[in-house]
């Protein structure tokens, strides 16, 4: 279902960007803007309109959970190569809704305590509670992406993790969490330009890490690891979406569309009062 | 120091709203707009200008912490009677900065596990880390406000807590956390109107709790408890500010001004690269 407030889609981004049977990452053009008829300007205008809609849907989702313990939640999982724009998604898409209904976690290199547990231990702690939109900036997928590329775990362990992830996400969705998984896909040339900009601007130096260049040289291995992730973990209840992200405006619009789609699927309703409204008006008036 | 982007202040809100020696809560008019020469329209325009400034200062604060473990943080403590507008502050003031640099906690009724610990145990866990703006929507002050009004603890225990709070906040400020404490001050009539609106609108019913009317009838006791809080815990390093909040636009502008003041006091700087910028450009160009 296409989000009604975003006018310029010619197809449904949830369908167009979905990873399904036979998907090949190498066939996705990072410069493309699938299903969108407008350019950057139309995209920005649609993003603003979508923000208004997202804001209302999020408030309903939150409200519903106040009177219903098992109310649904949404979990947005963001994965990408460095500089692909995860931060911009958080700021410009997630940042448009009330922060009181968002739980955001940026997963870093695991601590010794985290490494002493199964890889899902630290993830489980941050699953969004009912009524919230949770956002994972990196996630358990690092454990099968960098884990594989850098051989931080052996092959049998990586295999085990794919299965564990599928089971984990099935449990989440069974418990009412809509899982929206997004990989932002940029080209190596685009990354080079973005990293060079960070080096050119003193106010961006803090975002640059010399290790980024080392990782960059493993690009093909990373793409293979992502392909394996898509092959193994894009399940009907927790589908992957690959979003061409050389055009930042398109990536933001597409992620917003996926969130709108998830929320429209939940269709949250204002909860009915569990008290006598007229009686309360009388009580309040008397004070 | 008055925030430069907010044009219409005739005095410094940090000074004008401060709780100092001899402060009387009963002397504050909730309808007033101390130190501000404009009305609602000018206030909204100043709020937008201030948001741009807050956004840049927050990014610098965050950036600085990436290369400096003991970098400063900010903690905004929000206390108020029901419906005074804490939620609006979070949404419209805090919500204007990048969510990646904000940690927000809404403290609810303590759980049995929390009650089995000292009252500061659950608070300590949510102190913002370096580089973050932490926001407490309610806080450890509930334990000396509702704690006192509802006699949830005896007098000696309440006395102990004032001292414990002063010591705790001194430790935070010594460790580099700027503590900004705000009480939003509305009148009982304004609260009545706001609660009645929640009863009148089905999409607001979820925000209404019959217990609010019970608490409302204890208004004078709550004001006394707040006065005691100001007398005992407005220390030089962790001052209280009481903000007249019948005019929502004024309260938002004033809280933003206090945050700007705190950040300008920190004066965060873009960190200097800890790598050889020119050498990295060469390395990157070669990939």
From TrEMBL, chains A, B:
InterPro entries per record: P-loop_NTPase (IPR027417), PPK2-rel_1 (IPR022300), PPK2-related (IPR022488)
Matching Gene3D superfamilies: P-loop containing nucleotide triphosphate hydrolases
Polyphosphate kinase-2-related domain boundaries: 49-267
Pfam families in UniProt: PPK2
Statement: the UniProt record of this protein carries the keyword NAD: no
Keyword annotations from UniProtKB, A to Z: Kinase, Transferase
Any one GO molecular-function label of the UniProt entry: kinase activity
UniProt-listed PANTHER family: POLYPHOSPHATE:AMP PHOSPHOTRANSFERASE, POLYPHOSPHATE:AMP PHOSPHOTRANSFERASE-RELATED
Protein name in the entry: Polyphosphate kinase 2 family protein
């Amino acid at each position: 279902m296409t989000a009604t407030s975003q006018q310029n889609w010619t197809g449904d981004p949830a369908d167009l960007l979905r990873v399904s049977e036979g998907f090949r990452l190498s066939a996705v053009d990072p410069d493309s803007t699938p299903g969108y008829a407008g350019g950057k300007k139309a995209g920005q205008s649609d993003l603003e309109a979508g923000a208004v809609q997202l804001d209302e849907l999020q408030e309903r989702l939150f409200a519903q959970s106040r009177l219903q313990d098992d109310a649904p939640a949404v979990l947005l999982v963001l994965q990408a190569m460095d500089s692909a724009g995860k931060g911009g998604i958080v700021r410009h898409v997630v940042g448009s809704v009330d922060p009181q209904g968002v739980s955001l976690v940026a997963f870093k290199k695991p601590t010794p305590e985290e490494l002493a547990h199964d890889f899902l231990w630290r993830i489980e702690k941050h699953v969004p509670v009912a009524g919230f939109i949770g956002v994972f900036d990196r996630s358990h997928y690092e454990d099968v992406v960098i884990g594989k590329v850098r051989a931080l775990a052996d092959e049998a362990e990586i295999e085990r993790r794919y299965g564990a992830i599928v089971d984990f996400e099935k449990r989440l969705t069974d418990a009412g969490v809509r899982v929206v998984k997004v990989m932002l896909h940029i080209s190596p040339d685009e990354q080079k330009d973005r990293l060079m900009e960070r080096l050119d601007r003193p106010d961006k130096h803090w975002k640059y890490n010399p290790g980024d260049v080392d990782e960059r040289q493993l690009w093909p291995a990373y793409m293979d690891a992502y392909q394996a992730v898509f092959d193994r973990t894009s399940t009907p209840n927790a589908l992957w979406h690959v979003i061409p992200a050389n055009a930042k405006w398109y990536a933001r619009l597409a992620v917003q569309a996926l969130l709108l789609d998830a929320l429209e699927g939940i269709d949250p309703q204002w909860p009915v009062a569990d008290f006598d409204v007229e009686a309360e008006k009388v009580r309040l008036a008397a004070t």
